[in-house]
């Protein structure tokens, strides 16, 4: 039988002696803590910042504690590049000092990648399996039958463990656990999660993360500590405005493509790449700071941009070159070889090249310790890509790099239409939307602005009739909050990447959305996706119609309703089996333009006084006006004019609320639920959730207080005061109950009859 050699499985023979690559102090400290936990079964996390050596630490530890004792290891991740990185680290770390009497061991790499193996080929003799979670789930029976059943002890390593909240991760973990429990060896199954940011996730996902890793964090090290120790360099962030406008090139479809897929439209990318003004600005800025910036690594937009930039650098006498993922030579259609790219990278390492420009390469996995500066000449909406680009410059002195590193962003004018990743904020922040801090509220306002800019632009266009929209109370057009969540989706590279989604919720849709989101488990009973995370297009459309009929029967008339928002929430639930987080826009009432208009109207301000007043509001750094209106003063001014015109009677069928002269201060519990929702959306949802929780049993059934009717769907009930507010009842938990819609209607009818 003819045979061929493959690299995805085989035998690793240990090298004699000690690994020449020494671990840093924090890695040795981590190993000591892991050794303590290893005395018994554990399920916990190793947390090290990007560049802190999570993979190397874990590999050293498992070689000494598991492979050396002929115990099995299963290493799972969701990206092919992570599997390759783990396998390469394993090969380079296999020395007898760690492995003791074990001279050799078997490995296998499994994923959907053509250069990796498939689950059916798993063998009982495999000592370590490095695999994608999707491939293992699709071939779970082979993993269990051919490997787990033959193992007395297993260490499961979950790379990028913050993704372990996905349903298929939990399914995989539970399947192995149950197999060991049946064998009476549950204490020999251990789980180690690796992550840089375990809590850069939603509150609901933190709960699920705790379920997968109940022992929580075993060891963590802070980014600042590694910088202080010289392992990572101190980043110095600089931003330069190019003053070039690209927002006029963008359609709504373009904006969606950029936000969801980090793909700049070809026409815009070409304009960026071939802009002589922009490219000369980039090169000239480098020349002015040459001594402190070199050696320089440039992240370009595309191949055309790399070629154009390289030409400008060379024309200025700078030794530069470019490397790209794929380049096809004109005429021959032959791809530039990896060997040629490799030679250029080596010349950069050796100092023969001062500047290296790259496209779709060098984000991770390539050792470039001499990089002093990175130029971010392409914007991105991907936090992963931005983290990788920043990381190329952060090799500290003890790691053969530099004490300080420069990260230079070139900022174009997109009129704030795109939610680009800010490298400095990404580096500093530990999490997202963690509280009601003003900066968090501004970020929500920014997301709202992206959605509202088109609406404001239509109102500026005299050829478009927007009267119906103008008649609405302005505050009603400001969302009460957002659902924010992330979905792992396929990308052009073939690797799944997280995409962020935001669903804006208005007063018209809040109740419907709340019922829909809380009833998601019941909604999904009509489809069977127990063993998968992806809905078919037919299932998605079926569920969409089902949800619209049940929860949004008046969807054509609901402000801000979009089918895609429902689809995305459904896709998220299919993947995570959890509700998306709701973040209330608690500063919403500060965006009430009717108050601004009333001040102008009641004080009979002159044109000059109006201008001074509006500019004072606009330039107040504590306000949300600039963020909300996309930094376009004319949009702001137009909306104020509309609100003033309402007061002047320009919209005769619009009923204006009378002015509030001296407002009283009353306890909030004297307000109705609707009034509380208007003033404090977060408190409103907290009260509502507490009431429903009080009337929900352990099986998830909600019970009507009056009729005893039971249902698991929140849409079947309404919150009602036990003692009516008309009789002095308060909006407090003890005075609130849930009634079925039928019981509520009957109760209301009786109360009206008595009056």
Topology, please?
Blueprint: E1 9-13, H1 25-37, E2 43-47, H2 54-65, E3 72-77, H3 80-93, H4 96-99, E4 104-110, E5 128-132, H5 133-138, H6 140-146, E6 154-158, H7 167-182, E7 189-195, H8 203-212, E8 217-220, H9 223-228, E9 234-245, H10 252-261, H11 266-273, H12 276-288, H13 290-293, E10 296-299, H14 303-315, E11 320-324, H15 338-350, E12 355-359, E13 373-376, H16 383-391, E14 404-413, H17 423-428, H18 438-460, H19 467-471, E15 481-489, E16 497-505, H20 510-518, H21 520-523, H22 537-551, H23 563-576, E17 581-584, H24 593-602, H25 607-618, H26 625-628, H27 633-647, H28 673-679, H29 681-694, E18 702-703, E19 710-711, E20 717-721, E21 736-740, H30 741-754
Parallel strand pairs: 2-7, 2-8, 3-5, 3-6, 4-5, 6-7, 9-14, 10-12, 10-13, 11-12, 13-14
Antiparallel strand pairs: 1-4, 15-16, 15-17, 18-19, 20-21
Within CATH, the superfamily of the largest domain carries the name P-loop containing nucleotide triphosphate hydrolases
CATH third-tier fold name of the largest domain: Rossmann fold
Helix content: 40-55%
Structural class: alpha/beta
Strand residue percentage = 15-25%
Arithmetic mean pLDDT: 82
Oligomer: single chain
Count of beta strands:
21
Shape category: globular
Side-by-side strand order of the widest sheet:
1-4-5-3-6-7-2-8
Largest sheet: 8 strands, mixed
**Uncertain ranges:** 328-335, 429-436
Number of helical stretches of at least 4 residues: 30
Number of separate structural domains: 4
CATH class of the largest domain: Alpha Beta
> How many angstroms does the end-to-end distance come to?
94 Å
Radius of gyration: 30 Å
CATH architecture of the largest domain: 3-Layer(aba) Sandwich
């Amino acid at each position: 039988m003819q045979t061929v050699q493959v690299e995805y499985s085989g035998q690793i023979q240990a090298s004699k002696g000690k690994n020449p690559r020494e671990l840093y102090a924090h890695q040795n400290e981590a190993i000591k803590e892991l050794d303590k936990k290893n005395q018994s079964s554990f399920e916990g996390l190793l947390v090290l910042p990007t560049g802190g050596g999570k993979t190397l630490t874990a590999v050293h530890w498992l070689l000494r504690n598991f492979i050396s004792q002929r115990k099995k290891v299963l290493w799972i991740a969701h990206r092919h590049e992570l599997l390759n990185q783990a396998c390469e680290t394993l090969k380079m770390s296999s020395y007898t000092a760690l492995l003791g009497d074990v001279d050799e061991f078997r490995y296998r790499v499994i994923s959907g990648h053509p250069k990796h193996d498939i689950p059916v080929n798993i063998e009982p003799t495999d000592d370590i399996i490095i695999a994608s979670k999707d491939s293992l789930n699709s071939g779970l029976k082979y993993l269990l039958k051919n490997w787990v059943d033959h193992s007395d002890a297993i260490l499961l390593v979950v790379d990028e463990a913050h993704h372990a909240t996905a349903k298929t991760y939990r399914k995989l973990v539970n399947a192995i656990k149950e197999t060991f429990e049946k064998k009476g060896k549950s204490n020999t199954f251990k789980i180690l999660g690796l992550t840089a940011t375990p809590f850069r996730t939603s509150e609901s996902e933190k709960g699920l993360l705790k379920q997968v890793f109940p022992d929580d964090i075993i060891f963590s090290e802070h980014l600042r500590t590694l910088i202080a120790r010289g392992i990572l360099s101190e980043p110095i962030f600089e931003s330069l405005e190019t003053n070039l406008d690209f927002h006029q090139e963008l359609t709504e479809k373009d904006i969606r493509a950029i936000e969801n897929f980090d793909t700049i439209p070809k026409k815009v990318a070409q304009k960026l790449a071939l802009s002589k003004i922009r490219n000369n600005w980039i090169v000239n800025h480098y020349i002015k700071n040459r001594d402190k910036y070199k050696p320089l690594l440039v992240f370009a937009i595309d191949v055309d941009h790399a070629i154009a930039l390289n030409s400008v650098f060379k024309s200025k006498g700078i030794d530069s070159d470019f490397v790209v993922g794929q380049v096809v030579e004109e005429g021959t259609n032959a791809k530039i070889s990896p060997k040629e790219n490799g030679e250029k990278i080596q010349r950069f390492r050796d100092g023969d090249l001062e500047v290296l420009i790259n496209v779709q390469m060098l984000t991770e996995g390539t050792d470039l310790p001499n990089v002093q500066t990175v130029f971010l000449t392409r914007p991105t909406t991907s936090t992963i890509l931005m983290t990788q680009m920043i990381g190329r410059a952060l090799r500290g002195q003890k790691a053969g790099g530099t004490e300080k590193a420069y990260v230079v962003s070139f900022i174009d004018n997109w009129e704030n239409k795109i939610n680009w990743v800010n490298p400095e904020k990404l580096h500093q922040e530990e999490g997202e939307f963690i509280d009601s801090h003003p900066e968090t509220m501004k970020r929500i306002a920014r997301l709202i602005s992206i959605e509202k800019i088109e609406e404001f632009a239509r109102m500026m266009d005299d050829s478009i009739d927007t009267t119906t929209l103008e008649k609405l109370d302005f505050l009603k057009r400001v969302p009460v909050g957002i659902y924010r969540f992330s979905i792992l989706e396929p990308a052009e590279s073939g690797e799944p990447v997280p995409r962020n989604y935001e669903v804006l919720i208005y007063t018209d849709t809040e109740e419907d959305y709340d019922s829909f989101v809380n009833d998601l488990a019941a909604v999904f009973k009509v489809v069977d996706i127990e063993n998968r995370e992806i809905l078919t297009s037919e299932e998605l459309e079926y569920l969409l119609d089902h949800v619209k009929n049940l929860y949004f029967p008046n969807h054509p008339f609901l402000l801000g309703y979009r089918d895609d928002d429902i689809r995305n929430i459904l896709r998220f639930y299919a993947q995570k089996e959890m509700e998306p987080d709701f973040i209330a826009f608690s500063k919403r009432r500060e965006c009430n333009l009717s108050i601004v208009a009333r001040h102008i109207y009641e004080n009979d301000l002159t044109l000059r006084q109006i201008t001074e007043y509006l500019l004072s509001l606009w330039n107040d750094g504590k306000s949300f006006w600039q963020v909300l209106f996309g930094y376009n003063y004319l949009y702001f001014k137009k909306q104020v004019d509309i609100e003033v015109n309402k007061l002047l009677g320009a919209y005769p069928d619009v009923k204006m609320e009378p002015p509030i002269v001296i407002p009283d201060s009353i306890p909030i519990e004297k307000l109705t639920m609707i009034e509380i929702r208007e003033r404090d959306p977060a408190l409103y949802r907290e009260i509502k959730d507490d009431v429903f929780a009080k009337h929900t049993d352990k099986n998830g059934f909600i019970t009507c207080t009056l009729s005893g009717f039971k249902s698991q769907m929140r849409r079947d009930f309404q919150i009602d005061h036990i003692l009516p507010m008309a009789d002095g009842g308060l909006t407090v938990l003890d005075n609130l109950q849930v009634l079925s819609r039928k019981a509520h209607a009957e109760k209301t009818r009786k109360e009206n009859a008595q009056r």
